[in-house]
Amino acid sequence: MPSIMNPTTNPFIHTQFTKSAMQPTDWPEDQGHEVAFCGRSNAGKSSAINALTGSSKMARTSKQPGRTQLLNFFEPTPGKRLVDLPGYGYAKVAKSMRAQWRAHIDAYLRGRESLSGVVLLADVRLPLQAFDLQLIEWAQNAQVPTRVLLTKADKLSRNQGMQALFRTQRQLPKSMDQVEAQLFSARDATGLDALIEQLLRWLDWDASRSQ
Q: What pLDDT is attached to residue 64?
């Protein structure tokens, strides 16, 4: 398998943090291409972004889920952005704050013209939750393709992982033809190459020309 730290195979190691913002007026200019990362607060979203970018400090990880309370924007190359959306569903976060996060996620998914794809992260050991499916529906209504990243796949055997993948695929309505699912592990890089290939397509990025 190619080294994920090799810039010729993973251009995302050049990613730089741009800004954190909550209000749409503070977001970067709505042009170019963006891919949003979203999911429940304990789904491993920050770990996945760190694995993608080859940096343990790119996205903040914590033993206490729910730390990401703003939209965090990262730029692997000019005009291409990754967006870390606030995690949702963590019980210890106040209901008023969860409602606020949902409102901003909804506004982002419905109104961001540069949004080219959504990566939804979900723990492979659990079925998709109600808000996961709602988020997928939001993205589909906005005609934004979605990839479900089933995280922490290293905690299951290969057979168990495939069973979990099939379970997730059965949860997705057949009408959602712009939704795909894959296994992923930030710990051992399972599925990282497939994720990189998808991101490059969504971002309309020929990374070989930016080396």
A: 45
